[in-house]
Amino acid sequence: MDLGLKGKKAIVTGGTRGIGRAIAETLAREGCDVGICARNEDEVKQAVAALEALGVKATGSAVDVAQGETLKSWIESAEKILGGIDILVPNVSAMDVGAGPASWKRGFELDILGTVNAVEAALPFLKKSGAGAIVAICTTSAVQVEGPQAYSGVKAALVPYIKGLAVQLARDNIRANLVSPGTVYFEGGVWHRIQQQAAEIYKNALSRNPTGRMGTPQEVANAVVFLSSPAASFISGTNLICDGALTRRVQF
């Protein structure tokens, strides 16, 4: 299926590893020029080289998305290099499952303001696109109770925010959606570390999924890239759960 992404310009925050890296590379394989950012400069350089090897234009910088002005400046710079922005994927997360004020503050700065500031910076360019797409990365922890943790709360706030954008920006031909992964396993990721350090917790989490396994970054990336594409041109304001039937809620 041709997703119609060839020649599009995409920005992915947190694009050097895990889900973000899979999203960036899948967009590139579909013919998108891609801009990525992350905190580690060496990892950014390596990821940009890998994206360029896929035959597209790529750019990247070391950016802390909690620094709003820095993020805005980088997005504006990336737009000049790429020649526009058609797709924005705010992917960075604090992944902080603590319950104290410090965890809430960190989650708010990275998950919420990191997304809001990225959207605000990219909006002028998305409006010029004529077919802009925003796909924010949420989590199944936002739609079911996981305990009194900051991660669930701050991620849940993204759902009405993105839905509001979908309604507000429809007249500008900009779509806004979310993808909410369940448990996703990759080397160096959260569940890989839990497997090594807390085997019983890992086994319990694994047993909860009817598929008998955890998801992969590529499976999440496939959902994100589809929603980013013209193939999903009439889908906006949705929260796509990508979890292998892990969550038990009924979604109306």
Summarize the structure.
Helix content is 46%, strand content 15%. The chain is of the alpha/beta class.
Q: What would you call the shape?
A: globular
Strand content: 5-15%
Q: Under CATH, the topology is which?
A: Rossmann fold
The CATH H-level superfamily is: NAD(P)-binding Rossmann-like Domain
Q: How many structural domains can be distinguished in the coordinates?
A: 1
Category from helices, strands and their pairing? alpha/beta
- Biggest β-sheet description: 7 strands, parallel
What's the helical proportion of residues? 40-55%
Run of helices and strands: EHEHEHEHEHEHHHE
Q: Please give the alpha-carbon distance between the first and last residues.
A: 28 Å
- The CATH architecture category equals 3-Layer(aba) Sandwich
Sheet with the most strands: spatial strand order: 3-2-1-4-5-6-7
Average of the residue pLDDT scores:
96
Q: CATH first level: which class?
A: Alpha Beta
Radius of gyration: 17 Å
Give a count of the beta strands, DSSP E runs of length 2 or more.
7
Parts with pLDDT < 50 across at least 5 consecutive residues: none
Contiguous helical run count: 8
